């Protein structure tokens, strides 16, 4: 359906107009081969399987992700195979390896991309920055993506709760003329709340900005700054964490999610309302130049180059764990770990 946001019209697809039965009928002769069982693979693969699609998993043997797939109920040589064999068996290859994994496996995968197959992504990185990744699909296949706006863990959890994460969809190459039906069918099959149209470039630009901005990078920076100021001014660790993180995540964000920021303001004290309305534009003014710099770094390809250089370093996993360990051991998140355990359990 067409929905107008202000003066912008968008293509939105909901479960009502594109049913699960229609999706299954569209893909009834397809084998969906999920390549990679890391971040998105488990959620998408299990949701598709539970919804009645023909799904197989491709994963490197003798790896933690292979073991996880077995624990999740996938059976070796039945619906769990090596990456190569799953690439051979599948008709729609769902390329869900990490960006670094996609780059390294591409020289093998391209040999399996025969005429009539389809290539599916959940991130526009590999094709948008193809000059850096060297990922160039052949012309006689369909290429499209569905990008859930959340982690694979959340995708699976909300699916099991009968809900769904919204996803974007895009078509990069429509060789068969049926790419739209295919991509929407997979989007519905993985349990998307609704699907909105984008393109590969916009998907990766918005995704990289969001991850570095309000979704992860900026919010951690704001958490750390406020917590530090409170602690430096004599507030206890518990008080500082609760006023910085706990109240936001456990009380206020659910209100924003339910009905919006204005409604959340209306349901807080008049003191909180006045302060929030006075200060939010100051934070916007301070952060706007940073976000403009961030978008320029992403759209210029500099951020992609930095990512690729980091990920191909043979010691990148060791370096990553060191950075995560430093974050984990910071007072902010040490306190957070304790406070989470103090939350009352559900009856």
SSE topology sketch:
Layout: E1 2-5, E2 8-14, H1 20-26, E3 32-35, H2 41-50, E4 55-58, H3 64-71, E5 80-81, H4 83-89, E6 92-95, H5 99-109, E7 118-121, H6 125-128, H7 130-133, E8 142-148, H8 152-160, E9 167-173, H9 179-189, E10 194-197, H10 200-212, H11 217-232, H12 237-259, H13 261-266, H14 270-299, H15 302-311, H16 316-329, H17 331-342
Parallel strand pairs: 3-4, 3-6, 4-5, 6-7, 7-8, 9-10
Antiparallel strand pairs: 1-2, 2-10, 8-9
What is the assigned CATH homologous superfamily of the largest domain?
Answer: NAD(P)-binding Rossmann-like Domain
Strand content: 5-15%
Measured between the Cα atoms of the first and last residue, the distance is: 42 Å
Number of distinct beta strands: 10
Q: Under the CATH scheme, which architecture of the largest domain would be assigned?
A: 3-Layer(aba) Sandwich
Proportion in helices: 55-70%
Output the strand order for the largest sheet: 1-2-10-9-8-7-6-3-4-5
- Biggest β-sheet description: 10 strands, mixed
What is the string of helix and strand elements? EEHEHEHEHEHEHHEHEHEHHHHHHHH
Instruction: From the 3D structure, determine the CATH topology of the largest domain.
Output: Rossmann fold
Q: Briefly, what CATH class of the largest domain?
A: Alpha Beta
Number of helices: 17
């Amino acid at each position: 359906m067409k929905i107008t946001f202000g003066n912008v019209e968008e293509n939105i697809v909901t479960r009502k107009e594109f049913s699960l039965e229609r999706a299954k009928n569209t893909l009834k002769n397809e084998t969906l081969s999920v390549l990679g069982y890391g971040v998105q693979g488990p959620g998408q693969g299990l949701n598709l399987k539970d919804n009645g699609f023909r799904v197989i998993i491709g994963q490197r043997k003798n790896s933690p992700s292979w073991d996880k797939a077995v624990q999740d109920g996938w059976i070796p040589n039945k619906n769990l195979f090596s990456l190569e064999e799953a690439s051979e068996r599948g008709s729609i290859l769902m390329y869900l390896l990490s960006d670094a994994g996609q780059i390294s496996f591409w020289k093998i995968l391209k040999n399996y991309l025969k005429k009539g197959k389809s290539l599916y992504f959940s991130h526009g990185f590999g094709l948008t920055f193809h000059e850096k990744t060297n990922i160039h699909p052949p012309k006689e296949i369909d290429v499209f993506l569905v990008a859930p706006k959340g982690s694979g863990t959340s995708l699976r959890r909300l699916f099991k709760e009968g809900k769904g994460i919204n996803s974007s969809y895009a078509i990069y190459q429509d060789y068969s003329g049926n790419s739209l039906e295919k991509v929407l069918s997979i989007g519905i099959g993985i349990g998307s709340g609704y699907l909105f149209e984008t393109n590969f470039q916009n998907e990766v630009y918005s995704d990289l900005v969001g991850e570095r901005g309000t979704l992860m990078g900026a919010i951690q920076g704001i958490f750390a700054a406020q917590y530090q100021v409170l602690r430096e001014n004599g507030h206890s660790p518990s008080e500082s964490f609760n006023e910085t993180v706990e109240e936001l995540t456990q009380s206020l964000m659910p209100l924003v999610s339910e009905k919006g920021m204005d409604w959340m303001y209306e349901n807080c004290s008049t003191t909180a309302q006045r302060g929030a309305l006075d200060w939010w534009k100051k934070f916007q003014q301070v952060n706007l130049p940073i976000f403009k710099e961030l978008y320029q770094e992403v759209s210029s390809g500099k951020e992609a180059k930095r990512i690729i250089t980091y990920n191909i370093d043979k010691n990148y996993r060791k370096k990553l764990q060191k950075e995560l360990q430093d974050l984990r051991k910071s007072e902010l998140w040490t306190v957070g770990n304790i406070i989470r355990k103090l939350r009352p359990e559900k009856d």
